[in-house]
Amino acid sequence: MSVYVGNADSLDIKSLYSVAGKNVLITGGATGIGLMFTEAFVKNGANVYISSRNAKQCQEVATKLTSKGPGKCHAIPLDLASVEACEKLVSEIKSLGVSKLHILINNSGVSWGQSLEEFVEKGWDRVMNLNVKSVFFLTKAALPLLENAATQEDPSRVINIGSIAGIRHQIVPTYSYDVSKSAVHALTRKLANDLASRHITVNAIAPGLVPSKMSNQLTKYASKEALVSGIPLGRAGTPEDMAGVAIFLSSRAGAWVTGAIIPVDGGSVNNVSQPMGTSSL
Fold first, then answer.
1. Which one is catalytic: 4, 17, 49, 177?
2. How confident is the model at residue 226, as a pLDDT?
3. 4 belongs to the catalytic site
C-alpha cells in the first residue's frame, strides 16, 4: 500500500482549495445552480465548458464570464436527454483540443409537477431521461478524458447534483423528480465504488431551497416565507453556499472524499418539526 505524505506548502489555503488550470465540464451551467458553479470555477482560474438547452443564453454566459476571467468559459449548447447528445458533447470537447477532463459536474435537470391522478408519461420520461439517464451516459462517455487527468494524489472528480428531495420526499406532487434524485444518489454511490480504482471520485451535492427559475415553481404551493420557515438556519441558499461545496470537492481538500451525498440545505432534512416542502428542484 502506497502512502501519500503532504507538506507544509500543500496546506496553504490557496493551494488546498485551488482549481486553477483545471478543465471543468458543467451541464446546465448557464442557469440556476449550474451558473453558480460556472461563475465560481471561472473566477478561480479554471477552464470551464458549459452545456445548456438554451444556445443563446449559453453563449452569452460564456462570453461574459470569459471577459471577466481569470479562467475561461466555453459554450457547447445541447439538450442532454439522449445518449447521442451525451456522446456528442464529449466529442465537441475533444474537438476543442481537450484531452484531459479534471472535473465533471452533472447538473442538468428538470422537474414536473402534476397530481397523481393526472400525472402523464411525458412528465415521467422527460425527468428521468435528463436527470438520471444523462448522468450515467455522460459520465460513461467522459471516462477516457477523466482517466487521462486522474492521479492517485489528485483524482478526477465527478460531482452529481441531487437534491434533498432525493433524501426526504417533498409534499408537492413532483413524483418523477423526487424519484430521479434518489436514483442520482444511488448511482453516485455505485459509480464511486466502481471508479475508485481508476482514481476518479464520485460525490453528490444535495441542495435544499436555492432561489432559481426552477425552484420558484414551488411558490405555486406555498409562499416564500412558508418555504423558508422550514429551514432551521432561517434562509435560502446562496451562490457561495453552492460554490463552496463544489470547490471543496474539486480541490486537493476533497481528494479523499468519494461516495458522499452532501446535503447543503440549512438543516432542512433534519427538521422534524414540520413536513419538508422544499428542494433545489
1. 177
2. 78
3. no
